Every structure is written in C-alpha cells, then in structure tokens.
C-alpha cells in the first residue's frame, strides 16, 4: 500500500488522539478518553464515535478543531497563489511578494497556512481564456508559472517543497513543510499538441482543469454562452484518455454539464472537481455541480472539493453582490475616488456589511452536508479558491488560517474525526493514488 498505513499512523491512533486533546479537555472528558484508550483494541471508528464533540462548548470545540487541523493533512484543491505572485511581482529574478512571511493582502502565506494547518494547497497554474486567441501564449504562461512555483520552493526550502504524489505530501508534512502540488487551470496550455499532456506531467502538473471561462480546443465551458461542441471535442476525448495514461487527474470544475458527462464516460479512473460547490444552493449557476452530476461523480469514485467563494455558496449573496458593485462603482465616480482610496475602502466595507453581508462558515458546511447526505462522505473535499475569489469569502473563512473554524462547525454537526480526515485529505488522496497507479499499470 503506497499510502501511509492509516491504521497504525499517529493520526489514527486513539491513544494519541486522546493525549493530543488539551489538558483542560482531558480532565473534563477523562472518562471518555479513558474509555477510548481502553477501546484501542477495537477499531478506531468505534473509538471515534464514542467522543461526542457536539456536547462541547464552542470554545472547547474550536480547540479540538485546531488540534485536528494540525494533526491531519489538509489538502486544498485550488489556491491561486502563482497568479497572485505573477501580478504581485514574484519573478524569476527577485521576490517582491514574499509569502514566506505574513503578507497584508491575499489569502495565503506560510505563517497563516501554518496557523490553519494547511499542508498541501494545489497551486493553480491559471491560464486566462483570453490567451487562447494567441497560439503558443497559453503554454508559455503555464511554463513560467510552473517555474515561479518551483522557484518559491527553492527560495524557501525550510518552508515549502514541491509535491508530485500523496507520499510526497506525507513526507513534507512530517518535515513541517507546506507542499506545493500543481494543478493547471485551463487545458488551453496544451495548445493543439497531445504530446503536451505528457510534457506537463513531466513538469509536475497533477491535474488539469479541462477548460476555464470559455470553450477551448478541448470542450465547452460552463461560463460560456457559446457551446462549440455540446461537450468534449474529439481532441478533448483524446486529451482525457492521455491524461489517464500519463497520470494527470481530470479536473471537471469550470466545464459545462455536457463536457462533464462526456469526460466521465471516457475516463478510466476517478476524477476531481478541484473547486466547485453545490448547485442546489445557487440554482442556474452551471459552474456549480447539480445533484445529478454529484451522483455521477460519486459513482465514478471521484471527489468534489467545495469552493468557499461567496458567490459559489450563496445565491442571495451572489445576487446582492452584483447590485452592490454597481452602487459602489457609481459612488466612486460621483465622489472622484479610486478603488485604492482608504475613504472608499471604508465606505465600501460599511456599505457591503449593511446591504450584502457575507455568507458564513456555516454555509460552507451546508454544502459539505449536502454532498454527504446525497452520496456519502467519501466524495467531498476542500477547494477554497483562496487568492482567486478575493473579497467574497465568507465570515470565518477569510484566509488559510481559518480551516479550524470549518472543522469546528463540522464537529458541531456531529461529524466524526474519521469523516473530517476524509474531507481534509483521504478522499482526494484516494483519487490521486488511483490515477498514479493506473498510469503505472499502463507503462507495463
Ligand atoms: Zn477557477
């Protein structure tokens, strides 16, 4: 078994779990912990079920959530740091935006990742659809963002490390480093050459989001009003098969429903949606997944990683944010202000709080609940879209330091530690490993 032996691992061991609770909690729940320790010969699941986190106070539960966040690997399916670094000036020559230290802007940096227990944010190698007009430019940008991500790991080797497999993530986790696995957002970087699939696998890309906001050579996009193929193109069908062959996860976030179904029909291995939420809460928003697609993905053994963005999780917020933006743009013009003015910033945050309050961390948990209730706990993960959805993030989940708030909310709803571990990493590791194993089997 290439993954860690879960049963004997520290994170699964009921005795260690008991000891890792704070002293205060241990005294208070001594009997429970003692029972748990006695139950060591039984399965970890039985022991886990005997700890009732729902009876704790909110403050106590948050302490437990922080412990879990730090003892468990947390994988995030989508963090837009590379593009933020490109815009913010982390170039191959110099580091202007230094995320090894706390940064005033953005949602990700090393200190905050450590606070939140984040271990493996998939670095989004994001290629804007606009570049699709200019052949060659998408691949060139992908190459430069990959170099930039590698450069981040090389520049700060004590904090960051590249990761190309679940076992790499485990090694880095043990060493206290934040892993930088890479996913490519937009298959446009493959250009019109199928050989580029293998090329990007060798460059370290471990998932490819087939499209971004517009149809590309591979297939149709959910955001695009134009449907070129009503699903995957012929080239797109070959791309999916080639991704299976070389060991790149097929990411179905952003694609149209028809592309989604076509890809599921072709793939030989489980797929992911690296940053998509549940459409039930945002009717008509094709970018999120319908119950039908969630069920189809579960049948495939895949995992959908929930996007935290306000417009992804709450349709009332999404509707309000359009109106609020319009008001603020008008206000800015009428008062001769610019976006960066502190007076404007203050007005905007006051106006938003009064007229279009952010969703909360509970809303994200609602999405996880929905997937769990519909198809089970094995098919859901986290794909925040941090550094990609900016100001819309929910209260309590504003940056990578705040995963414990979500874990605490899940504990409050009766989720077991085992279920939380599945959400945090075991589900996506299962898919990632299956994809790697399939690729190895194809080489023989
Ligand atoms: Zn995206």
TrEMBL record:
Domain of life: Bacteria
Family matches, as InterPro entries: Metal_Hydrolase, Pept_M19
Single annotated GO MF: metallodipeptidase activity
Biological processes, Gene Ontology terms: proteolysis
Stated name of the protein: Membrane dipeptidase
Phylogenetic lineage: Bacteria, Pseudomonadati, Bacteroidota, Cytophagia, Cytophagales
């Amino acid at each position: 078994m290439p993954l860690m032996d879960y049963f004997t691992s520290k994170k699964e061991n009921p005795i260690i779990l008991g000891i890792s609770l704070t002293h205060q909690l241990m005294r208070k729940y001594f009997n429970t912990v003692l029972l748990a320790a006695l139950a060591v010969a039984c399965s970890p699941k039985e022991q886990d079920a005997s700890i009732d986190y729902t009876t704790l106070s909110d403050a106590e539960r948050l302490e437990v959530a922080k412990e879990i966040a730090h003892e468990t690997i947390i994988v995030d399916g989508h963090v837009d740091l590379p593009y933020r670094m490109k815009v913010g000036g982390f170039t191959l020559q110099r580091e202007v935006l230094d995320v090894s230290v706390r940064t005033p802007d953005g949602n990700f940096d090393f200190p905050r990742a450590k606070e939140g227990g984040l271990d493996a944010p998939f670095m989004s190698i994001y290629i804007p659809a606009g570049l699709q007009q200019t052949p060659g430019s998408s691949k060139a940008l992908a190459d430069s963002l990959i170099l930039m991500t590698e450069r981040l790991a090389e520049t700060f080797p004590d904090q960051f490390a590249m990761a190309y497999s679940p076992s790499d993530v485990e090694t880095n986790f043990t060493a206290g480093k934040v892993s930088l696995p890479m996913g490519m957002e937009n298959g446009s970087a493959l250009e019109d050459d199928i050989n580029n699939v293998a090329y990007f696998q060798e460059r370290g890309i471990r998932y490819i989001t087939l499209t971004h906001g517009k149809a590309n050579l591979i297939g149709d996009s959910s955001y695009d009003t134009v449907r070129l193929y009503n699903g995957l193109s012929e080239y797109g069908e070959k791309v999916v098969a080639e991704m299976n062959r070389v060991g790149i996860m097929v990411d179905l976030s952003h694609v149209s429903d028809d592309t989604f179904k076509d890809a599921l029909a072709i793939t030989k291995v489980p797929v992911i949606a690296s940053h998509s939420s549940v459409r039930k809460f945002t009717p008509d928003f094709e970018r999120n997944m319908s119950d039908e697609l969630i069920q189809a993905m579960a049948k495939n053994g895949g995992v959908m990683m929930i996007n935290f963005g306000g417009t992804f999780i709450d349709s009332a917020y999404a509707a309000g944010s359009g109106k609020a933006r319009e008001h603020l743009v008008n206000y800015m013009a009428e008062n001769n202000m610019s976006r960066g003015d502190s007076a404007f910033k203050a007005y905007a945050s006051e106006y938003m709080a009064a007229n279009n309050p952010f969703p909360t961390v509970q809303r994200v948990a609602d999405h996880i609940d929905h997937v769990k209730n519909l198809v089970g706990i094995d098919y859901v993960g986290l794909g925040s879209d941090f550094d990609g959805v900016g100001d819309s993030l929910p209260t309590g989940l504003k940056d990578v330091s705040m995963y414990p708030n979500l874990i605490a909310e899940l504990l409050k709803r009766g989720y077991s530690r085992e279920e939380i571990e599945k959400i945090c990493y075991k589900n996506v590791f299962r898919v990632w490993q299956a994809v790697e194993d399939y690729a190895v089997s194809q080489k023989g």
